[in-house]
Design goal:
Chain lengths: 295, 153, 778
């Protein structure tokens, strides 16, 4: 399909070159990494950048490392690369499972985790994992390098706190020191590729400590602090789970759209949260669990 | 306008492109490589799938200029000395496809799978082609042929 | 009967190698050189509006814009069964997306930019997005000129209303029958619109060359019918059929979307305005959703009366169709259902009202099943409900009422030979052999059963024809104008010729048509080309065989009756040593001892037209006609596992038996069964078309209109082929391509009822709908 909108294509080789370009062009420029989001937006006329800055020739952005309980995902790292990484699979299972549910292999081979959070669609699958692992986004512009905590990243549907002259270098995720298991549960319209109509990520740690996060059920993804506050230190018995599910109503604000009604999203989040918590607990206790992230 | 060099099915091809030229369109309209198809232009259907440095991508979501200096494979390149690949022969033998429009994309996805895994299981086969929409077959005959090929690998 | 060598065998598709190698050419793959122009449509943003003015001046000024064309240039009507459409909207628009103007440019990017510069001034009118609103007394009239529209004689429009056609079928006396019934069940069902979603969008290229010849290349199911419609509609510009040529390359899926004429005529018209240049019109996926045919929506009221033993005595079926802005094709869907909405049952008292209603939504048209999926959802749900109420096994009730050969159809004709009871028994056997257990405590399993039937909906003179020629190596070419839209038509035609002429399928070329070279075929729709075109190929092959035997008889003095064809040779029953290779003489003639040659190139031709078909019938009751050549029947069941906590459904197994008369190629028949089942499941479980209240389609993409992936197919599909020969079919064959998706939706409805005790009477039946219905029940 021919694209009517015209733009210039720039290909820096270093971070500094990229930052210089961003500093020069600011909101007239967009970073092109995987392009699986960006190209659609340009084709359909939602975005009309004058400059596209291809980040794929900047080697530092390709880093994917795990050390000292910290996972660093460089801005160019794709979902396929996350899935192929054994550390991600072993230690950050909720991220790994979320990555597996994103679109299809042909999209995952290009789409980047950073691109996902820059798109900031309310349904993005990677958000619960990032919230559960207290992720931080490293960004840099000509003036400084700074860290944005994940809770400060999303400012509204499709909006982030990234400034127009800032380049995302990568995302850091922090693994809890205690033993833990995690999982992602996603509501789709079928088993094939779909955007989440509701998503929940949980980390279950030793001593009944929990981290819970939701996506697609509010204008931005959120951490369920109220539920965590109630549940921390408690067992996952049926009374506690019942109360947990009641508390969900206070944590989420889903809408009704062509994909799902808010009633259905609300009910399914409750079911998925319960299943996710119990599954992760079972895994932590060494029991075998067979299930799929897709509800 | 920029002159770029794309290696396509083993051959270095030079072509002049504008930044907003999409790889799928350049392959089809400027380079005469017709097998990747336009089905949805949004990456939802997989009909445009090509191998980009060995990995399957949605060529409708890649700008041609991004492919400068890179390697693209399409199903035209799977023939060796006029002989089709085992996978393509199996699809013919099984009468797997009907209208055939999704076939190039599925062959690319399945080729990527079989190159990386000797004996994929059914779930891995389904996942490999899950991004390729087929409206005609219901997928069963396609999956059976891939299973058959993988047995002989 | 001698053993068949090619018929009934899973022969390799003749187009398989082409498609797997990448050699297959689809319409958008053809190169037209540097003179190719690109067209982009200016489309209506309103569902119903008067066009006050169109200002094309800004667009025309853009460099590389060649022409901007509006409706004024083409005030010509067209239509298949009713001429109610213009090529471009004239004084008003009737659906969002309707083409108002078109920009033709040297480059596609320029065309896109120029479209934005065309200024159209509208006065919006109240839009009708619901067919029941369109029926009201005070509803705005969408087609004020309805009474003057040309249409086929078997349509009955109601002037001064939005009813484009009303098919009434009345047999017996339903009132008395209802009064005498032991149990009467009445309810309403609702089936929304659906989109075909062929993976290849519509595309058409037109070229009106400087000698006055118009050629259209199009992804098409109907090259000859399209040629006819173009020639008729564009006749005021001085064109006749002789000047119009349609070339139809490989089709990337049809399902009815590429039947009839939609955007192709726009390409033809544009071409005439830029003589000497080829111009391409390519639909985006979005346009493929809202500016091609859609499957009509329908709201039905069904009332059935039965005796306590389960015998159905009366049926009253009212179907109100949302047929869209133009019904030139969709009205025939309404008609077809109006004749058959009793299902495959022997019911003495019948009343069917099938009403075709204009709305301000995209035009409805042919979609696999042609209205039968839509009415079977309600009918097969209804019958199971009645059976359960009476305490009768739903399968036994079907057996008791199944229509048998000789029974009367709704319109009073005799039902053809059919294997319905055999299909039921085979499905029942397969069904009873299963004992599924839920895979976890929150899941339950239900099973659903359904019958189905369908007849081709065609005009009484829908004809097929074939030319056959040999080549020097003994291979042959079949020239036909049916389309292989994936079903394997080309292969099956080759198999028929192979069987008659003793030449293997692999030495027979059957290829996509060019209306200049290939003889007439009405359309590739209605699941009729295996039967209709197959008969024409059969006749052509027999004709060629006759000629072969005749020349051998007169030159070699062997009696025709003793000759037969096998292994590419003429052989003789009375002389086992005689084997004359076809390649020796099928081009060159037979060489005689005296040096002369006899015979020459062997040619065959065949024509098939069902001469017994007629639409002449009582206009008020539909009695007395023979509008349908024959019905194909079948039975199916499925097993569904439902998660009570989420409504999520998993199809464990589907069994489907269909009587195709003779499976000319079992691989291809199975392909239709599996593909149709998956498409049927998609319409009931996943596809969910959403319109705004202003008539805008909100999910015109695959992101939000979900068609199944490889991860969404049932665990197990068991196809069963029943073969009760169709007496007038080639080798006994009968069509079956559409039918395979017909029983799916009611089976899901019935399975859910069995599992959860919830009866859902509207489609789609998504997980959310099941969950909400079950929660309410609790």
């Amino acid at each position: 399909m021919a694209i009517a909108h015209e733009f210039e294509y720039l290909k820096p080789n270093t971070i500094d070159q990229a930052i210089d370009l961003l500093d020069k062009h600011k909101e007239k420029a967009k970073i092109l990494a995987g392009g699986t989001d960006l190209v659609v937006l340009i084709k359909e006329g939602y975005l009309t950048p004058d400059f596209l800055i291809d980040s794929k020739s900047i080697p530092e952005l390709n880093k994917l490392t795990f050390s000292n309980n910290e996972l660093f995902v460089g801005a160019n790292v794709t979902f396929s690369q996350l899935i192929e990484n054994s550390d991600v699979k072993k230690h950050f299972k909720v991220l790994w499972e979320a990555a597996e549910t994103v679109a299809s292999i042909g999209v995952r081979n290009r789409a980047t985790l950073t691109g996902n959070i820059c798109s900031a669609v309310p349904s993005l699958d990677s958000a619960p994992a990032l919230f559960c692992f207290d992720a931080e986004i490293l960004v840099k512009n000509k003036q400084q390098e700074r860290t944005i905590k994940i809770k400060d990243w999303f400012t509204g549907p499709k909006r982030t706190s990234l400034k127009s002259d800032e380049l995302v270098l990568g995302i850091k995720l922090y693994l809890p020191k205690s033993n833990n298991q995690s999982t992602y549960k996603k509501l789709g319209r079928y088993s094939g590729e779909d955007l989440a109509q509701a998503g929940v990520g949980v980390v279950v740690m030793e001593n009944n400590q929990y981290k819970i996060s939701f996506c697609a059920v509010g204008p931005v993804p959120t951490r369920a602090y109220k539920i965590e506050q109630f549940l921390n230190g408690k067992e996952l018995n049926s009374d506690n789970l019942k109360q947990t599910k009641e508390l969900v109503n206070d944590e989420i604000s889903p809408i009704t759209d062509i994909r799902a009604s808010k009633e259905y999203r609300t009910q399914m989040i409750k079911v998925m949260l319960e299943r996710a918590l119990l599954e992760s607990k079972n895994l932590l206790d060494g029991k075998a669990v067979h299930s799929s992230p897709i509800l | 306008m920029k002159k770029i060099n794309i290696k396509i099915n083993g051959e270095n091809r030079l072509v002049v492109v504008e930044p907003n030229d999409v790889l799928l369109d350049v392959l089809r309209d400027k380079l005469g490589v017709k097998s990747p198809k336009a089905g949805c232009e949004r990456g939802d259907c997989g009909a445009c799938a090509v191998l980009f440095n060995g990995k399957s991508v949605r060529s409708c979501l890649v700008f041609a200029i991004e492919a400068d200096g890179q390697e693209i494979e399409t199903i035209e390149g799977l023939s060796v000395n006029g002989k089709l690949s085992d996978l393509q022969e199996k699809f013919i033998e099984h009468n797997s496809f009907q209208c055939g429009y999704c076939a190039p994309g599925i062959i690319i996805s399945a080729t990527e799978l079989l190159r990386s895994k000797q004996h994929p299981n059914i779930d891995e086969i389904k996942e490999a082609i899950a991004g390729n929409l087929c409206r005609c077959t219901g997928y069963t005959s396609i999956i059976n042929a891939i299973v058959d090929v993988s047995k002989k690998q | 009967m001698d053993k068949l060598r090619y018929i009934g065998k899973p022969e390799i598709r003749v187009d398989g190698r082409e498609k797997m190698s990448g050699a297959a050419i689809y319409a958008d793959d053809i190169d037209f050189g540097p003179d190719l122009l690109f067209a982009e449509i200016v489309e209506s943003e309103y569902a119903h509006a008067i066009i006050n003015s169109i200002d094309t001046s800004e667009a025309e000024k853009l460099p590389e814009v060649v022409k901007v064309i509006t409706g004024k240039d083409f005030p010509f009507k067209f239509g298949l069964y009713m001429k109610d459409r213009f090529i471009f909207a004239q004084d008003r628009v009737r659906f969002i997306g309707e083409q108002v103007a078109v920009v033709v440019a040297r480059c596609p990017k320029v065309a896109k930019r120029a479209v934005k510069l065309v200024k159209v001034n509208y006065t919006p009118l109240p839009a009708l997005t619901n067919q029941m609103d369109a029926l009201k007394e005070d509803a705005p009239l969408l087609h004020e000129g309805l009474e003057n529209y040309n249409h086929v004689p078997w349509f009955f429009p109601k002037p001064k209303t939005n009813v484009a056609h009303w098919r009434k079928t009345i047999k017996g006396d339903i009132e008395t029958a209802f009064a005498d019934a032991d149990y009467v069940l009445e309810d309403s069902y609702e089936v929304p619109r659906y989109s075909h979603c062929p993976i290849e969008p519509h595309v058409a290229i037109g070229k009106y060359d400087l000698s006055g010849r118009l050629t259209i290349w199009a992804s098409s199911q109907s090259p000859h019918t399209q040629r006819h419609v173009f020639a008729e509609a564009l006749a005021p510009l001085g064109i006749t059929h002789k000047d119009v040529r349609v070339i139809a390359p490989h089709v990337g899926g049809g399902f009815g979307a590429k039947a009839g004429v939609t955007m192709e005529i726009v390409a033809a018209a544009i071409a005439m305005k830029v003589p000497g240049h080829p111009v391409k019109l390519l639909w985006s996926r979005e346009k493929e959703f809202y500016n091609t045919y859609q499957r009509l929506g329908v709201k039905t009221k069904l009332k059935m009366g039965v005796k306590k033993d389960g015998k159905i005595t009366a049926i009253k079926h009212e179907l109100y169709w949302d047929a869209g802005a133009y019904v030139e094709y969709g009205a025939n869907v309404v008609n077809a259902v109006g004749l058959s909405a009793i299902g495959p049952y022997n019911i003495p008292n019948v009343w069917i009202d099938s009403v075709c209603i204009y709305t301000n939504l995209p035009p409805g048209g042919a979609y696999r099943g042609f209205g039968y999926s839509e009415f079977l959802f309600g009918l097969e749900s209804h019958i199971t409900r009645i059976a359960l109420h009476l305490g009768i096994d739903p399968i036994e009730m079907r057996k008791m009422n199944a229509i048998r050969e000789g029974d009367l159809t709704a319109y009073g004709a005799h039902m053809n030979r059919n294997g319905l009871l055999e299909a039921i028994e085979k499905v029942e056997k397969e069904m009873k052999s299963e004992d599924f257990k839920p895979s976890s405590p929150n899941k339950v399993i239900g099973k659903g059963f359904s019958l189905f039937w369908k007849a081709p909906a065609m005009p009484p003179n829908a004809a097929s024809s074939c030319f056959l020629k040999f080549n020097e190596d003994g291979s042959m070419n079949l020239l036909v104008s049916g389309m292989d839209i994936g079903q394997g038509y080309l292969t099956v035609m080759a198999q028929i010729a192979a069987e008659i002429l003793g030449v293997p399928t692999s030495k027979i070329r059957v290829e996509n048509p060019d209306t200049d070279r290939n003889p007439y075929e009405w359309q590739t729709v209605a699941s009729h080309v295996t039967w209709g075109s197959g008969n024409a190929v059969l006749k052509a092959a027999i004709d060629a065989r006759e000629k072969i035997f005749a020349v051998v008889e007169r030159t070699l003095f062997m009696s025709k009756e003793s000759l037969y064809l096998e292994d590419e040779c003429v052989k003789c029953k009375n002389d086992p040593s005689f084997a004359l290779p076809l390649k020796n003489f099928v081009i060159n003639g037979i060489m005689m001892e005296d040096g002369t040659f006899k015979g020459g190139p062997i040619l065959g031709s065949g024509v098939f037209l069902p001469e017994f078909s007629s639409t002449k019938a009582d206009p008020d009751t539909s009695q007395g006609g023979h509008p349908n050549v024959h019905y194909t029947v079948g039975a199916a069941c499925l097993f569904l596992e439902i998660d009570k906590e989420t409504g999520k459904m998993k199809v464990l197994k589907v069994v489907e038996a269909i009587d195709c008369g003779k499976a000319l190629n079992p691989d291809l028949v199975n392909g239709q069964i599996i593909g149709g089942i998956v498409q049927g499941l998609a319409t009931v479980l996943y596809e969910d078309m959403r319109y705004s209240d202003k008539g805008k389609l909100l999910n015109a993409n695959f992101t939000d209109y979900k068609i199944p992936t490889s991860k969404d197919i049932p665990d197990n599909i068991v196809p069963i082929i029943v073969e009760v020969a169709q007496p007038d079919g080639p080798f006994g064959a009968r069509g079956m391509g559409e039918h395979t998706m017909l029983p799916i939706a009611p089976m899901i409805g019935n399975a859910i009822y069995e599992a959860l005790g919830v009866r859902i009477t509207s489609m789609p039946i998504t997980a959310e709908k099941v969950f909400m219905a079950y929660s309410e029940k609790k």
